[in-house]
Design a protein that fits this description.
With about 450 residues, the protein is mostly helical. The chain contains 23 helices and 3 strands. Strands 1-3-2 form a 3-stranded antiparallel β-sheet. Strand 2 and strand 3 form a beta hairpin.
């Protein structure tokens, strides 16, 4: 191992200090410190040189794999496997997949788990069917079964226990050595490799199993949960719908520090999340996306200016801003097929958001909105206002009653959403007004209470 590290220092002199540190920590058997140093090194994309992560994993880390944290081992392996696929060819992905299989064949274990689960289900179903049969019939069937068993035993063909699969036993031992968390992450990384090869059925098998068993991992490391939502978001990115990608990608952000993603990954993720929010059905809380730290990566980039402004117009519920963006950046929007093909749906979404903003700005004691006000802020014909209001109620954005005679919407509830600083400032003013009103009412009661109770 020392000769390998010396070779790497000579090959990559800019990383000589790190390789020297690896050698020192290894010689002193400081496994925790060495593991964290290795993980930090491979997590930084700027340290990537040709196949240096792959070589570091196969020629160095694998030599003491049993001595280090198994979750970190899998994460280091996953980064190395990713570097092994620079061109994205089938052969490269298969080589990366073999790196995972060397740790444990999670696909085999999941299939065995599903087979056992199905066998248990069939057995339980048969027991229910047997219990429903008349007692005389059950007795006859049991007698026939017993006779058949005795006949087999007499002929030397007693009931033989199924032979255990030696390959499966080896994989089960590997899984036990890895531990639940490391095995789970390895399973999700395998699913992602399958997705990159368009092997969606095989990927879905692993993802569904992960979805079912994640609750069994008590107090798991955040990266374990992040691996599940990353795999699910990648799956729905390929097969749709957009809203499922959005919800899983959003949950992934709750478990993934922003510095865990490279600048390029942050930018790509911010774009994908924004586009899925815009095109996804039932997504109206744009403040939730705009408030994410990763969203800030769109700022200051001329190629993303249109998307930034479009998201802000949807967040603020401003039809004027929305129309301005659609006019000024028509060419940029046309380059995104998902937007260009769904402009009618997008215009309905901005109209609903404008309605929400209009209701929000009304005073609590007078949340009656006229049809004329709705038509003005949403810029839709008066004949379509009632349809819009029914749509808003059907998707759960507002609750209330529609008065067709007086042409008024009487709102009793508005769906909560993430507010920006301007909206929070407006809310703070209302609290101040409410405080003043309560104080005045309290003073009035104090002044007149003596006469009432005299």
């Amino acid at each position: 191992m020392s000769s390998f590290l010396a070779e790497q220092r000579e090959k990559y002199p800019e990383h000589a200090e790190q390789y020297q540190s690896f050698e020192r920590l290894h010689s002193e058997k400081l496994w925790f410190e060495l593991t964290e140093a290795l993980y930090k090194f491979v997590s930084d994309e700027q340290n990537s040189r040709q196949q240096n992560f792959v070589e570091l994993y196969t020629k160095f880390v694998c030599g003491f794999a049993d001595d280090i944290n198994q979750l970190r081992l899998v994460q280091i392996c996953a980064t190395a496997a990713q570097q092994k696929c620079p061109l994205g060819t089938v052969e490269e992905y298969q080589e990366a997949q073999r790196m995972f299989v060397d740790l444990c064949n999670t696909e085999m274990l999941v299939k065995q788990y599903n087979d056992a689960k199905e066998a248990a289900r069939l057995k339980k179903e048969k027991q229910r069917e047997d219990a429903a049969k008349p007692p005389a019939q059950r007795k006859r069937e049991l007698k026939k079964q017993k006779e058949a068993e005795e006949k087999e035993a007499a002929g030397g063909k007693g009931h033989a226990e199924p032979e255990e699969n030696p390959v499966l036993l080896v994989e089960q031992q590997k899984a036990e050595k890895l531990g639940k968390e490391a095995l789970f992450v390895l399973q999700m990384e395998t699913a992602i490799i399958f997705l990159r090869q368009d092997l969606r059925d095989r990927a879905r098998l692993l993802i569904d199993h992960g979805d079912e068993t994640i609750s069994e991992l008590d107090c798991a490391d955040p990266s374990v949960h992040a691996s599940l939502f990353r795999a699910k978001s990648q799956y729905f990115k390929q097969v749709g719908p957009a809203e499922k990608f959005f919800h899983n990608a959003l949950r992934m952000t709750a478990y993934t520090p922003i510095d865990a993603l490279s600048a390029q990954q942050q930018l790509a993720f911010a774009k994908e999340l924004s586009l899925s929010a815009i095109t996804g059905e039932g997504i109206y809380n744009f403040g939730e996306v705009v408030a994410l730290p990763v969203f800030e990566t769109l700022a200051g980039r001329s190629d993303c200016e249109w998307l930034l402004k479009l998201m802000n117009s949807l967040k603020s519920g401003s039809m004027q801003e929305f129309n301005s963006v659609c006019t000024d950046y028509a060419a940029d929007i046309a380059k995104e097929p998902a937007l260009a093909q769904n402009m009618a749906v997008l215009r309905e979404k901005i109209a609903l958001l404008c309605l929400m903003e209009l209701v929000f700005l009304q005073q609590p004691e007078a949340r009656n909105v006229s049809f004329a006000q709705v038509a003005e802020v949403t810029e839709i014909p008066s004949s379509e206002v009632e349809t819009l209001l029914m749509r808003a109620m059907s998707v759960g954005l507002v609750k209330g009653t529609i008065d067709e005679v007086d042409q008024v919407l009487r709102v009793s509830w508005l769906k909560p959403r993430v507010l920006d600083k301007v909206q929070i400032s407006e809310l703070a003013k209302r609290f101040t007004t409410w405080r003043t009103t309560v104080h005045e009412a309290s003073s009035l009661v104090k002044q007149n209470a003596a006469g009432v109770f005299a």
